[in-house]
Structures are given as C-alpha cells and as structure tokens.
Amino acid sequence: MSNESGASASPPFAAVTELRLGRPDDFHLHLRDGAALESVLPFTARQFGRALVMPNLKPPVTTVAMAAAYRERILRACPADATFEPLMTLYLTDHTTADEVARVAESGFIKAFKYYPAGATTHSDSGVTALKNVYPVLAAMQQHGVVLCIHGETTDPATDVFDREAIFVEHSLTQIVRDFPALKVVVEHITTREAADFVDAAAANVGATITPQHLLFNRTSIFSGGIRPHLYCLPILKRESHRQRLLAAATSGSPKFFLGTDSAPHSRNSKETCCGAAGCFTSHAAMELYAEAFDAVGALDKLDAFASRFGARFYGLPRNAGTITLRRETWSPPDAFAFGQETIVPLTQGRALGWRLGA
Fold it and tell me: Reduced to 3 states, what is the DSSP secondary structure of residue 257?
C-alpha cells in the first residue's frame, strides 16, 4: 500500500497462488429490504455461511417480532442453492425495554443490539440520544449475555469528523466498559489507532470488526483524482497511520478482531449527488478485498482465523461447515450492478483485483 493513497503494492507472497479457508462469517452487514435485498443478498450468500444483519431499515427493526419477519424476508430472497444463515440484530433506542432484552435472549436467532448514537450515520435518527437513557437496558443485556454492537462515534457537531471515533472511545466507550464490565461489546468498523488500542487493552469480552475499505484505503483515497463518492462511508476513512494500525490489528492473530464488511448498498443516484449517502458496497468481492489487504503485509496465513474463527468464537457459535477457495488471479469486477430498479456502484469501480473466489 502506498503511504499516500492506499494503492496496491506488489504482493510479497506471489508464490502463494491458492488459499483454502473455512467458510467465513460477516459480522456486520446491511442488506436493505425488498427488491434491493434480493439484488445484494446473493453476493453474501455465495461467500459467507452467516452474516449479522444490521437493523437500520425504515422503520428500524426494534422488536423480536419485527426481526423475525425481516429474517423470513431474507430467507425467502436467499438463492435456493445457498447455505446461509442470517443472524439478526435489534435497533437500540431510548425506548427499548429490559423485557425486550429477555425476549432477544430467548429468541435464538437475534444475537445483538445495535447502538447508533442518534444522527451518527444512515437511518440513525431513531438512535440513542444519551447514553444514560439506555443504562437499564445495558444492565439487562449484561445479565442475559446479549451482545452490544456499537457505532462508535460522537455526534457533537463541534467535533471534527475525523476525530469522532477517538472522542467516543475516550468518553462513551470507556464509560460503558467501566460500568458494565461483563457486557459483551463489539466496537463496529473501527477506523482509528485509538479504537484498536482500546480493544487490545480491554478484557476478552470486548472485540471489534474491521472493514475491507478501512484496511485498504486512507482518507487521501477519497480525493484521489477528484471526490470519490463510493469511498465515502461512516466512520470516514482516516490517516495512513490509522490504516496501518488497523492492518496490524487484523493480522495480529488476536481473537478480539474479526471480519465485518459493513457492506452498505446505496443506489448510484443516492451516492453521486450533492449530499451523497454514506456507505461502501463491498459484498460482491468481500473476501477478495480482505485477501488483498492481508497479502499486502505478508499475512495470508492469518486470514482464516480473522474471517472464519474469531467472530464465531466471540459470539459463541460453532464454526461453519465447508470451505471457500481464493485463487491468485487478476480480474476486474463490473463497475455497476442491478439494485432493484436502480444500479449500485461497488467500491472496486475501475480497479482490478488480485484474488478471485473460486466457483
């Protein structure tokens, strides 16, 4: 990777031509709904055995009954030949009750609550307005062993967008872990040295997901050759030093860090506009992108654990049956895909990849 733009360098282990991995899991995925869901789900089902599906629909998925209905829609949209299990989440709000936490714990198919600070990202307007508002629910989650997944950014408008994660870690995340020491917490899509260092130093019940875009690109990439809207996501890409710290965390062999693509599909029209939507679509080539990142730092031997073991272990799930194969092959994914009645532009637009998922 270039220190300036995150452009690919020559792979250090060019002699490795094939990787066989345990069937991986995606522990942070956006699938949308309706025709959009039907368009994007096959990409994930082809690669992953399970995915933790985010609840920020309109309206948000806030109850066990809503999650059950959404799960059924996902299963109906799944290709007939796919072996894929959606794992569900509930959207945490100021009005979530301890009783709902108990129902989640009994459900078997809902694995976490998602904490969105209100206004932090796409469809987060129903999120938590103040941390203390959800303390009774966090206590119930700790009691019942339900995981808390956190979008870790402050929404204070006075805070620089590039500092929002670090400030959240310093204040809110530190407070949550201090006040609920047995609560299982996943800091989602970490982007900074501060977040990686915090997770590293925390107890074993605190983990983090890392996306392919935050391993492959830095904030300079967004402005390479003009504004690149399909690299815009939240939390936003950070400095090269932060990208390097994330690579070190992902390839460290620590079970605290595991795969979560945060693949977030938006139509071309909603991305290429004066106020473009935040989110990168990566599920069409997710494992190929992770392989590129790990290959670039000579850590292909660490990819299986990151993608196929550590997340399942954190969530108390068995490893998936079966394997996938990645082959070293230069290819160019399509520059656009169908997205319901519209089109979607992937993160890889205009780029060749060096790894390809086997048929």
Answer: strand
CA angle 348, 324, 298 (to 5 degrees): 65
Position 7 scores a pLDDT of: 42
CA 47 to chain centre: 15
* Residue 229: CB atoms within 10 Å: 17
What is the identity of the amino acid at 180? Answer: F
Closest CA to 24 of 293, 213, 306: 306
Burial (0-12, 13-18, 19+ Cβ within 10 Å), 140: buried
Sign of the C-alpha dihedral computed for residues 93, 246, 314 and 292 taken in this order: positive
Helix, strand and coil percent figures for the chain, each rounded to 5: 35, 20, 45
Which residues are catalytically annotated? 262
DSSP 52-121: EE----SS---SHHHHHHHHHHHHHHS-TT---EEEEEEE--TT--HHHHHHHHHHSSEEEEEE-BTTSS
Percent of the chain with pLDDT over 90: 92
Other CB atoms within 10 Å distance of the CB of residue 132: 11
Closest CA to 262 of 103, 140, 149, 147: 149
**Whole-prediction pTM:** 0.95
